[in-house]
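Backbones bend. To wit:
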Amino acid sequence: MAGIFGRIKQKLSRAGDKMDKYQEAITFAEAGESDYAMETMAEQREDQEPTKLLVMGRESDFSKEIIDYALDMAQRMSYEILALNTAPLSCETFKLFSSTHNQVCQEFKSMSEKNVGLFQEAASEKGIPFDHIVMFSEPDEALNIVTREHKDIAFVISESVENRTESRIEEGERLHRNLYVYSVV
């Protein structure tokens, strides 16, 4: 039993050290000291596979803000980008209409591949490795599956879901999208 707890403690310690290095590199990169940030990340990557940013789109689309942010972060930190589109189109939803399910899924996949084109092209221009996944599940479920399959994801970038837009407009607030960045430890 002590062996299990020892390994857990060791992994937590390493995760804390990694997080400290990431935070240090991000701080220096944002302050314009990209050389120091790159050196810090190079030390971190010596033993690791390439690290990825998981960028979660809103259904079949990626906003300009999330694309720009992800490209900037990936370039500064030498990450690969893994773009994810999700649609909650489970088999249960279309149980009685299997032909409709296939058609809707195919259309969603086509739209996602078309919409990710600009993102992929911009990443290619900057020399950033890029991959794209389309999943037919709820976003949280898709996130869990992808992070289990891809152990080298360092951060997740997603957009907020705008809720109650009408009340915000009535209050005179301007519409804007918030981006969220999560660390995966």
In short: The beta strands are 52-56, 80-86, 130-135, 153-159, 179-183.
